[in-house]
Design goal:
The complex is a heterodimer of chains A (135) and B (155). Chain A is an alpha+beta fold and 135 residues long. Chain A contains 6 helices and 3 strands; from the N terminus they run H-H-H-E-H-H-E-H-E. Chain A has helices at residues 3-11, 19-23, 27-31, 74-85, 89-102, 112-124; strands at 62-67, 104-110, 129-133. The longest helix of chain B is centred in the middle third of the chain and has 26 residues, at 48-73. The chains are: A alpha+beta (135), B alpha+beta (155). Chains A and B meet through helix 4, helix 6 and strand 3 of A and helix 2, helix 3 and helix 4 of B.
């Protein structure tokens, strides 16, 4: 899914210099004649970014939601929120109680990548967590 | 099992002989939750690739947890015998993965038991086949609470 984003991030670095084109120059180009200012042979290659589809499922604005289930211990859920989000205990407890009483709690609103990261973290602790597009 | 002391980043716990045997038996059940049990989204449709990634990541994590678990169970220095049982030393990251492992067994056992929910009037339907999973679910909860108390004391 996000393999494409890796390329996008690389493209965002802007300038590309192609060393192969410099190496291919003849040695005479380097050593013949008087010292002079050499114009760069390689023009900065500014790549165009591919536009993402903001209406697609991968658009930013995903909610990380934790859902209630009757098996996870309340202290355990609080602990996981503290570890995953680095929240202080009162905030973690607030969200744990929201899950317990209201059936779910929105824990974060993030980009797809971050939301997915959090969901992976929460699920590795066997919590019932999903990412949902923010309406 | 109870916390004796913190030594720097390490937790030193006392565990009785029968408790240790019980812990070993319960840990042998890992992993129990099917990877496909976790859904990346409840509503979005175009999430197949997300789901595949999630399942791959979870499978990888479990494999690593299992590897660490086997290493821990066979490490002689991990459990030092005392007069009253054993002294178990765990680092903070080891406590974290042990909590994950125990909760996987707890949730997996709950799934095998048919997802009982007292609040919704769905009690556990015990049979001779699933009784050990009921015991595993309860024991995991007890071990988890001990570890959580230890972490909380250390904060």
């Amino acid at each position: 899914m996000f393999a494409g984003n890796k390329d996008l991030r690389r493209r965002r670095s802007g300038l590309f210099i192609c060393p192969a084109r410099i190496e291919n120059r003849s040695a005479l180009d380097y050593f013949s004649g008087m010292a002079q200012t050499v114009e760069p042979l390689v023009a900065p290659d500014i790549g165009k970014e591919e536009k993402s589809d903001p209406k697609g499922d991968l658009a930013p604005g995903f909610l990380v939601i934790c859902w209630d289930d009757p098996v996870n211990l309340m202290d355990y859920v609080t602990h996981v929120f503290q570890v995953v989000f680095r929240w202080p205990r009162p905030k973690a407890e607030f969200h744990m109680l929201q899950v317990h009483r209201q059936g779910k709690s929105v824990l974060a609103r993030e980009s797809p990548e971050r939301a997915e990261h959090y969901v992976h973290q929460l699920q590795s602790y066997s919590l019932h967590a999903t990412m949902e597009r923010d309406a | 099992m109870k916390l004796i002391k913190r030594e720097g980043e390490d937790f030193v716990l006392h565990i009785g002989r029968r408790e240790r045997r019980l812990l070993f038996e319960v840990l042998k059940l890992y992993p129990l939750v099917p990877v496909a049990h976790h859904r990346v989204s409840q509503t979005a449709k175009q999430m197949d690739e997300h789901q595949t990634l999630l399942e791959e990541a979870l499978a990888e994590r479990r494999q690593e947890n299992k590897r660490q678990l086997v290493a821990m169970l066979h490490e002689e220095q991990r459990f030092k015998e005392t007069d009253a049982g054993y002294r178990l030393t765990l680092s903070a990251p080891q406590v974290e993965w042990l909590l994950q492992v125990l909760n996987d067994i707890r949730v997996g056992s709950w799934l095998i038991l048919g997802e009982p929910d007292e609040k919704k009037g769905k009690p556990v339907a015990l049979t001779s086949e699933n009784a050990r999973h009921y015991a595993a679910m309860e024991f995991c909860g007890l071990f988890q609470m001990t570890l959580l108390d230890a972490v909380q004391q250390g904060r």
